[in-house]
Write a structure and sequence with these properties.
With about 325 residues, the protein is of the alpha+beta class. The chain has five helices and 16 strands. It is globular, with a radius of gyration of 31 Å.
Length: about 325
């Protein structure tokens, strides 16, 4: 009977350890390491902000207000390796506070988009940018609201700490995918920030024929040009492939998939696999330790034949019969 309990104990230990290991999936350490190389610092005159690279040939997304207040001042982009490149405006959004900058460079690291429509309130997110000039700073929070309407536009509300200089930086999920673009914070409030949903950003990029990378099924199927007609979409890009919204012939090969952007990211699954093996080994050790104790005397039931080699059952000594006090009157004061 005692031996029969061992598998149950081992299973419980395994489940507890696997449950604890599942917390690795919410860790942003690897997600930030993956996205950070594509995050840039933008300087326009005396103004500065953040942005991120969406195409390896030098297309960068940021907020329009980051550069428009600089007037005729030149715009420059600083990469993670400290290299600074001049930038020009490639495209402006008509209604959203978005702009695309272009630098002359190739083989740049890029971000991957995820659909903001799949966000849920309470979901963990992180923001990367240059608040107060502190480049590549990371702040973490949760999605406070997936749909907050301000001045007729819909935003994602997050409670991550956002300051001047974060504008234009990416908001990412735990998988290292961009789900929004930081745009503003509420005045006289703490940790009330707003981001443009990634779905709107992808529609804008497609409308301007700018390639980008998105997870499987994340890119919107249709986009509406402000003040224009609905255009037919080229379809969502495969996981790890750049979207190519231009009307190219079907037989022309598309861009090569990027090995760094796959649907099943190794930094998410390897910790879980390792944790599973650690949990299994720990459960085996616990089971063996308990099994060495051998069957206990309490496991032998009177009237049954004991297992070979087991100690004979010795009944406990009889307890004295308690005196019957039912006929005694007791006054309760």
């Amino acid at each position: 009977m005692a031996q029969a309990r061992v598998p149950g104990v081992g299973m419980i230990c395994t489940l507890l350890l696997v449950a604890a290991a599942s917390g690795v999936m919410a860790d942003f350490t690897n997600a930030v390491k993956h996205v950070d190389p594509a995050v840039v610092t933008i300087t326009a005159g005396e103004w500065s902000g953040s942005g991120f690279i969406v195409s390896s040939d030098g297309y960068i997304v940021t907020n329009r207000h980051v550069i428009e207040d600089a007037g005729d001042a030149s715009v420059s982009v600083k990469l993670l390796d400290e290299k600074t490149l001049p930038a020009t405006v490639s495209a402006n959004a008509d209604e959203r506070d978005l702009v695309v900058l272009k630098v002359e460079a190739t083989s740049l690291p890029v971000v991957q988009f995820a659909s903001s429509d799949k966000l849920t309130s309470g979901q963990d997110v992180a923001a990367i940018g240059a608040p107060l000039g502190l480049e590549h700073s990371v702040t973490r929070g949760v999605v406070s609201s997936t749909s907050r309407t301000l001045d007729g536009e819909v935003f994602i509300q997050i409670d991550a700490a956002i300051n001047e200089g974060n504008s234009g930086g990416p908001v990412i999920n735990e998988d290292g995918q961009v789900v929004g673009v930081v745009v503003t914070v509420a005045n006289e409030a703490q940790n009330v920030a707003f981001a443009i949903p990634s779905t709107d950003v992808m529609r804008f990029l497609r409308s301007k024929d700018i390639p980008f990378t998105a997870a499987l099924g994340a890119a919107p199927e249709e986009e509406t040009e402000p003040g224009g007609d609905v255009e037919e979409s080229t379809g969502g890009p495969e996981a790890g492939a750049e979207a190519t919204p231009s009307d190219e012939e079907a037989d022309e090969p598309g861009p090569e998939p990027r090995s760094g952007f796959v649907l099943f990211r190794p930094w998410v699954f390897w910790p879980v696999i390792i944790s599973f093996f650690v949990s299994a080994i720990t459960a085996l050790i616990v089971s063996l330790a308990i099994g060495r104790r051998g069957p206990s005397a309490a496991a032998v039931i009177p009237g049954q034949h004991p297992m070979p080699g087991a100690a004979p059952f010795t009944p406990p000594p009889a307890r004295p019969v308690e005196e019957d006090l039912s006929d005694i009157d007791i006054d309760l004061h």
